[in-house]
Protein backbone atom coordinates (compact mmCIF):
# COMPACT_ATOMS: atom_id res chain seq x y z
CA UNK A 1 0.00 0.00 0.00
CA UNK A 2 1.42 3.36 -1.05
CA UNK A 3 1.80 6.36 1.26
CA UNK A 4 -0.51 8.36 -1.00
CA UNK A 5 -3.23 5.73 -0.53
CA UNK A 6 -2.85 5.89 3.26
CA UNK A 7 -3.02 9.67 3.02
CA UNK A 8 -6.23 9.43 0.97
CA UNK A 9 -7.75 7.02 3.50
CA UNK A 10 -6.81 9.42 6.33
CA UNK A 11 -8.32 12.31 4.38
CA UNK A 12 -11.56 10.37 3.91
CA UNK A 13 -11.70 9.66 7.64
CA UNK A 14 -11.04 13.30 8.44
CA UNK A 15 -13.79 14.50 6.10
CA UNK A 16 -16.31 12.15 7.72
CA UNK A 17 -15.22 13.28 11.20
CA UNK A 18 -15.50 16.99 10.35
CA UNK A 19 -18.87 16.51 8.62
CA UNK A 20 -20.41 14.51 11.47
CA UNK A 21 -19.05 16.92 14.07
CA UNK A 22 -20.45 19.83 12.07
CA UNK A 23 -23.94 18.32 11.93
CA UNK A 24 -23.96 17.96 15.70
CA UNK A 25 -22.72 14.46 16.53
CA UNK A 26 -20.69 14.22 19.77
CA UNK A 27 -16.96 14.59 19.13
CA UNK A 28 -16.05 11.06 20.26
CA UNK A 29 -18.78 9.46 18.14
CA UNK A 30 -17.71 11.48 15.09
CA UNK A 31 -14.14 10.35 15.73
CA UNK A 32 -15.19 6.69 15.81
CA UNK A 33 -17.05 7.03 12.51
CA UNK A 34 -14.03 8.83 11.02
CA UNK A 35 -11.72 6.04 12.19
CA UNK A 36 -14.10 3.44 10.76
CA UNK A 37 -14.06 5.28 7.44
CA UNK A 38 -10.26 5.31 7.49
CA UNK A 39 -10.15 1.58 8.23
CA UNK A 40 -12.58 0.80 5.47
CA UNK A 41 -10.81 3.03 2.92
CA UNK A 42 -7.40 1.57 3.82
CA UNK A 43 -8.80 -1.92 3.43
CA UNK A 44 -10.35 -1.09 0.06
CA UNK A 45 -7.09 0.35 -1.24
CA UNK A 46 -5.07 -2.57 0.02
CA UNK A 47 -7.53 -4.76 -1.84
CA UNK A 48 -7.44 -2.78 -5.05
CA UNK A 49 -3.63 -2.51 -5.08
CA UNK A 50 -3.17 -6.25 -4.64
CA UNK A 51 -3.18 -7.58 -8.15
CA UNK A 52 -2.43 -10.97 -9.63
CA UNK A 53 0.98 -9.72 -10.74
CA UNK A 54 2.05 -8.91 -7.16
CA UNK A 55 5.13 -11.12 -7.24
CA UNK A 56 7.16 -9.26 -4.64
CA UNK A 57 7.02 -10.83 -1.17
CA UNK A 58 7.67 -7.45 0.43
CA UNK A 59 4.65 -5.98 -1.36
CA UNK A 60 2.44 -8.92 -0.38
CA UNK A 61 3.53 -8.58 3.24
CA UNK A 62 2.63 -4.88 3.23
CA UNK A 63 -0.84 -5.71 1.91
CA UNK A 64 -1.32 -8.35 4.61
CA UNK A 65 -0.22 -5.95 7.37
CA UNK A 66 -2.54 -3.24 5.99
CA UNK A 67 -5.44 -5.70 5.92
CA UNK A 68 -5.04 -6.83 9.50
CA UNK A 69 -4.37 -3.32 10.80
CA UNK A 70 -7.55 -2.12 9.13
CA UNK A 71 -9.41 -5.12 10.50
CA UNK A 72 -8.31 -4.35 14.06
CA UNK A 73 -9.27 -0.70 13.61
CA UNK A 74 -12.69 -1.69 12.27
CA UNK A 75 -13.22 -4.07 15.20
CA UNK A 76 -12.34 -1.39 17.74
CA UNK A 77 -14.78 0.97 16.05
CA UNK A 78 -17.49 -1.67 16.07
CA UNK A 79 -17.04 -2.18 19.80
CA UNK A 80 -17.23 1.57 20.31
CA UNK A 81 -20.24 2.23 18.08
CA UNK A 82 -23.36 0.35 19.18
CA UNK A 83 -25.00 0.88 15.82
CA UNK A 84 -26.72 -2.05 14.16
CA UNK A 85 -26.20 -0.82 10.59
CA UNK A 86 -22.47 -0.14 11.15
CA UNK A 87 -22.07 -3.58 12.71
CA UNK A 88 -23.85 -5.22 9.80
CA UNK A 89 -21.97 -3.32 7.10
CA UNK A 90 -18.50 -3.69 8.62
CA UNK A 91 -18.93 -7.33 9.61
CA UNK A 92 -20.05 -8.16 6.07
CA UNK A 93 -17.68 -5.94 4.16
CA UNK A 94 -14.42 -6.34 6.09
CA UNK A 95 -14.09 -10.14 5.71
CA UNK A 96 -15.29 -9.97 2.11
CA UNK A 97 -12.75 -7.31 1.11
CA UNK A 98 -9.93 -9.04 3.00
CA UNK A 99 -10.72 -12.39 1.40
CA UNK A 100 -10.93 -10.89 -2.06
CA UNK A 101 -7.67 -9.01 -1.53
CA UNK A 102 -5.90 -12.29 -0.83
CA UNK A 103 -7.59 -13.91 -3.81
CA UNK A 104 -5.88 -11.35 -6.03
CA UNK A 105 -2.41 -12.62 -5.07
CA UNK A 106 -1.20 -15.78 -6.77
CA UNK A 107 0.71 -16.95 -3.71
CA UNK A 108 -2.33 -16.60 -1.47
CA UNK A 109 -4.75 -18.27 -3.88
CA UNK A 110 -2.98 -21.58 -3.18
CA UNK A 111 -4.54 -21.60 0.30
CA UNK A 112 -7.94 -22.44 -1.16
CA UNK A 113 -7.00 -24.75 -4.03
CA UNK A 114 -8.49 -28.24 -3.85
CA UNK A 115 -6.18 -31.26 -4.24
CA UNK A 116 -7.53 -31.89 -7.73
CA UNK A 117 -6.12 -28.57 -8.96
CA UNK A 118 -3.03 -27.98 -6.77
CA UNK A 119 0.23 -29.67 -7.72
CA UNK A 120 2.52 -31.25 -5.14
CA UNK A 121 4.41 -28.03 -4.32
CA UNK A 122 1.19 -26.07 -3.98
CA UNK A 123 -0.32 -28.80 -1.79
CA UNK A 124 2.78 -28.82 0.44
CA UNK A 125 2.78 -25.00 0.72
CA UNK A 126 -0.95 -24.96 1.43
CA UNK A 127 -0.69 -27.67 4.09
CA UNK A 128 2.24 -25.92 5.78
CA UNK A 129 0.21 -22.69 5.78
CA UNK A 130 -2.79 -24.43 7.36
CA UNK A 131 -0.58 -26.02 10.01
CA UNK A 132 0.89 -22.65 10.96
CA UNK A 133 -2.50 -20.93 10.75
CA UNK A 134 -4.01 -23.61 12.99
CA UNK A 135 -1.34 -23.04 15.62
CA UNK A 136 -1.86 -19.28 15.48
CA UNK A 137 -5.65 -19.68 15.73
CA UNK A 138 -5.18 -22.06 18.67
CA UNK A 139 -3.22 -19.45 20.62
CA UNK A 140 -5.67 -16.77 19.52
CA UNK A 141 -8.76 -18.70 20.65
CA UNK A 142 -7.00 -19.68 23.87
CA UNK A 143 -6.26 -16.01 24.59
CA UNK A 144 -9.76 -14.80 23.65
CA UNK A 145 -11.39 -17.56 25.69
CA UNK A 146 -9.20 -16.79 28.69
CA UNK A 147 -9.98 -13.09 28.33
CA UNK A 148 -13.71 -13.83 28.11
CA UNK A 149 -13.66 -15.98 31.22
CA UNK A 150 -11.35 -13.95 33.40
CA UNK A 151 -11.69 -10.35 32.26
CA UNK A 152 -14.87 -9.98 30.19
CA UNK A 153 -15.35 -7.25 27.65
CA UNK A 154 -16.96 -4.25 29.40
CA UNK A 155 -18.67 -2.89 26.28
CA UNK A 156 -20.49 -6.16 25.78
CA UNK A 157 -21.48 -6.72 29.41
CA UNK A 158 -25.11 -5.73 28.77
CA UNK A 159 -25.62 -8.00 25.79
CA UNK A 160 -26.27 -11.73 25.61
CA UNK A 161 -22.55 -12.40 25.19
CA UNK A 162 -20.65 -13.30 27.26
CA UNK A 163 -23.06 -15.75 28.89
CA UNK A 164 -23.31 -16.00 32.68
CA UNK A 165 -20.05 -16.89 34.35
CA UNK A 166 -21.27 -20.36 35.30
CA UNK A 167 -21.44 -21.19 31.59
CA UNK A 168 -18.13 -19.59 30.72
CA UNK A 169 -16.02 -22.56 31.69
CA UNK A 170 -18.27 -24.89 29.68
CA UNK A 171 -17.95 -22.67 26.59
CA UNK A 172 -14.22 -22.44 27.17
CA UNK A 173 -13.84 -26.20 27.04
CA UNK A 174 -16.33 -26.58 24.21
CA UNK A 175 -13.98 -24.58 21.99
CA UNK A 176 -10.67 -25.40 23.57
CA UNK A 177 -10.88 -29.17 23.82
CA UNK A 178 -11.36 -29.76 20.04
CA UNK A 179 -8.68 -27.19 19.22
CA UNK A 180 -6.14 -28.93 21.43
CA UNK A 181 -6.95 -32.44 20.22
CA UNK A 182 -8.25 -32.18 16.65
CA UNK A 183 -5.04 -32.77 14.63
CA UNK A 184 -4.26 -35.87 16.69
CA UNK A 185 -7.86 -37.05 16.39
CA UNK A 186 -7.81 -36.63 12.59
CA UNK A 187 -4.56 -38.60 12.37
CA UNK A 188 -5.92 -41.32 14.66
CA UNK A 189 -8.97 -41.52 12.41
CA UNK A 190 -7.14 -41.61 9.07
CA UNK A 191 -3.84 -43.42 9.56
CA UNK A 192 -3.63 -47.07 8.45
CA UNK A 193 -2.95 -49.87 10.95
CA UNK A 194 0.38 -49.68 12.77
CA UNK A 195 2.84 -52.47 12.04
CA UNK A 196 3.55 -55.13 14.64
CA UNK A 197 6.99 -54.72 16.25
CA UNK A 198 9.61 -56.89 14.55
CA UNK A 199 10.90 -59.81 16.62
CA UNK A 200 14.32 -59.13 18.12
CA UNK B 1 29.41 -37.04 3.22
CA UNK B 2 28.61 -39.92 5.55
CA UNK B 3 25.21 -41.55 5.63
CA UNK B 4 24.29 -40.44 9.13
CA UNK B 5 25.04 -36.81 8.31
CA UNK B 6 22.88 -37.04 5.17
CA UNK B 7 20.06 -38.55 7.21
CA UNK B 8 20.36 -35.83 9.85
CA UNK B 9 20.23 -33.11 7.20
CA UNK B 10 17.27 -34.72 5.48
CA UNK B 11 15.42 -34.97 8.80
CA UNK B 12 16.20 -31.35 9.57
CA UNK B 13 14.85 -30.44 6.11
CA UNK B 14 18.16 -28.80 5.25
CA UNK B 15 19.30 -31.12 2.49
CA UNK B 16 19.70 -28.91 -0.55
CA UNK B 17 19.05 -30.57 -3.85
CA UNK B 18 20.82 -29.22 -6.93
CA UNK B 19 19.49 -29.82 -10.42
CA UNK B 20 20.14 -29.26 -14.10
CA UNK B 21 16.56 -28.54 -15.06
CA UNK B 22 17.24 -25.06 -16.42
CA UNK B 23 20.00 -26.37 -18.70
CA UNK B 24 17.97 -29.36 -19.87
CA UNK B 25 14.97 -27.16 -20.53
CA UNK B 26 17.04 -24.63 -22.47
CA UNK B 27 18.66 -27.37 -24.56
CA UNK B 28 15.24 -28.59 -25.60
CA UNK B 29 13.87 -25.07 -26.06
CA UNK B 30 11.06 -25.66 -23.62
CA UNK B 31 9.30 -22.94 -21.68
CA UNK B 32 8.48 -23.45 -18.01
CA UNK B 33 4.85 -23.69 -19.06
CA UNK B 34 5.68 -26.47 -21.58
CA UNK B 35 7.58 -28.50 -19.03
CA UNK B 36 4.98 -27.83 -16.35
CA UNK B 37 2.20 -29.03 -18.66
CA UNK B 38 4.18 -32.17 -19.53
CA UNK B 39 4.78 -32.91 -15.85
CA UNK B 40 1.29 -31.97 -14.71
CA UNK B 41 2.49 -29.19 -12.41
CA UNK B 42 2.17 -25.43 -12.34
CA UNK B 43 4.83 -23.49 -14.30
CA UNK B 44 5.75 -21.73 -11.06
CA UNK B 45 6.69 -25.11 -9.61
CA UNK B 46 9.21 -25.62 -12.43
CA UNK B 47 10.66 -22.21 -11.58
CA UNK B 48 10.81 -23.08 -7.87
CA UNK B 49 12.59 -26.34 -8.73
CA UNK B 50 15.13 -24.58 -10.94
CA UNK B 51 15.77 -21.95 -8.30
CA UNK B 52 16.30 -24.65 -5.66
CA UNK B 53 13.40 -23.34 -3.55
CA UNK B 54 11.57 -26.65 -3.76
CA UNK B 55 12.71 -30.27 -3.76
CA UNK B 56 10.53 -32.56 -5.87
CA UNK B 57 8.79 -35.67 -4.64
CA UNK B 58 10.28 -38.99 -5.73
CA UNK B 59 7.37 -39.37 -8.12
CA UNK B 60 8.02 -36.02 -9.84
CA UNK B 61 11.76 -36.73 -9.98
CA UNK B 62 11.03 -40.03 -11.74
CA UNK B 63 8.64 -38.32 -14.16
CA UNK B 64 11.31 -35.73 -15.01
CA UNK B 65 13.87 -38.49 -15.44
CA UNK B 66 11.58 -40.35 -17.81
CA UNK B 67 10.71 -37.18 -19.72
CA UNK B 68 14.35 -36.18 -20.31
CA UNK B 69 15.38 -39.82 -20.76
CA UNK B 70 18.20 -39.37 -18.27
CA UNK B 71 19.06 -41.07 -14.98
CA UNK B 72 17.80 -39.21 -11.92
CA UNK B 73 21.34 -38.60 -10.67
CA UNK B 74 22.11 -36.77 -13.92
CA UNK B 75 19.30 -34.33 -13.21
CA UNK B 76 19.45 -34.09 -9.40
CA UNK B 77 22.35 -34.14 -6.98
CA UNK B 78 23.06 -33.30 -3.35
CA UNK B 79 26.27 -31.58 -4.49
CA UNK B 80 26.53 -28.61 -6.86
CA UNK B 81 26.91 -29.67 -10.49
CA UNK B 82 29.99 -28.74 -12.47
CA UNK B 83 29.21 -27.13 -15.83
CA UNK B 84 28.49 -29.79 -18.47
CA UNK B 85 31.41 -28.56 -20.61
CA UNK B 86 33.81 -28.94 -17.69
CA UNK B 87 32.54 -32.43 -17.00
CA UNK B 88 32.83 -33.45 -20.67
CA UNK B 89 36.17 -31.88 -21.58
CA UNK B 90 37.66 -32.28 -18.10
CA UNK B 91 36.94 -36.00 -18.34
CA UNK B 92 38.55 -36.18 -21.83
CA UNK B 93 41.76 -34.51 -20.65
CA UNK B 94 42.03 -36.93 -17.77
Attribute tags:
heterodimer, B: mainly alpha, 7 helices, 2 strands, globular
Which stretches of chain B of 5+ consecutive residues score pLDDT under 50? Answer: none
Computed CA radius of gyration of chain A, to the nearest angstrom: 22 Å
Oligomeric nature of the chains: heterodimer
Low-pLDDT windows of residues of chain A: none
Main pleated-sheet profile of chain A: none
Write the H/E string of chain A, N to C: HHHHHHH
What this model shows, in words?
In chain A, 74% of the residues lie in helices and 0% in strands. Chain A is built from 7 helices and no strands. In chain A, helix 6 runs antiparallel to helix 7. The model of chain A has no long low-confidence stretch (mean pLDDT 76). With 94 residues, chain B is mainly alpha-helical. Chain B is built from 7 helices and 2 strands. The model of chain B has no long low-confidence stretch (mean pLDDT 85). The chains are: A mainly alpha (200), B mainly alpha (94). Chains A and B meet through helix 6 of A and helix 4 of B.
List the helices and strands and how they pair.
The complex is a heterodimer of chains A (200) and B (94).
Chain A: H1 3-22, H2 27-49, H3 57-80, H4 84-103, H5 106-109, H6 120-150, H7 165-190
Chain B: H1 3-11, E1 18-19, H2 21-27, H3 32-39, H4 43-51, H5 58-68, H6 72-75, E2 76-77, H7 84-93
Antiparallel strand pairs in B: 1-2
Helix pairs in contact in B: 3-4
Amino acid sequence: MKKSQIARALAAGLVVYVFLFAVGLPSLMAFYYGAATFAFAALMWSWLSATRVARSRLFRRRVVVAMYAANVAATVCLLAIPDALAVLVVSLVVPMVAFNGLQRMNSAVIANLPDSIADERQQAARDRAYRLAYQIVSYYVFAVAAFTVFARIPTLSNSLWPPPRSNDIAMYWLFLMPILTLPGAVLAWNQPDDLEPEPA
Amino acid sequence: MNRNRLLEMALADKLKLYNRLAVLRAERKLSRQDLGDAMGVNYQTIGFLERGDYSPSLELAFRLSKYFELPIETIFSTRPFKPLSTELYGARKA
